[in-house]
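Anyone opening a protein record will find just a pair of labelled lines. The record below illustrates this layout.
***
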Amino acid sequence: MSKRIRYSPEVKERAVRMLLEHQDEYPSQWKAISSIAVKIGCTGETLRSWLRQAERDQGLRPGLTNDEREELKQLKRENRELRRANEILRKASAYFAQAELDRRPK
């Protein structure tokens, strides 16, 4: 399995901008993607996914924007934490209720 490389947002933005500026010079979008990907140092599929995400962010393609994706991720994390806290409180409540029932009357 190959090592995953993290590209900075600036590199992604520059690559997409280059692609959009020069794609008319190629017979197909994939040829443009392949050519520019080599120059950037990423795979064609990686550059294609950056382009599709940029199109979603600009409203040109249906799907979640980066901001919506980040908000959804944060809400899921918060929901998971709240469920965990509720489960802890539920178990603690049951434990103390049982302890109250087990106490001997004076």
About this structure: DSSP finds four helices and no strands in the chain. Residues 66-102 form the longest helix (37 residues).
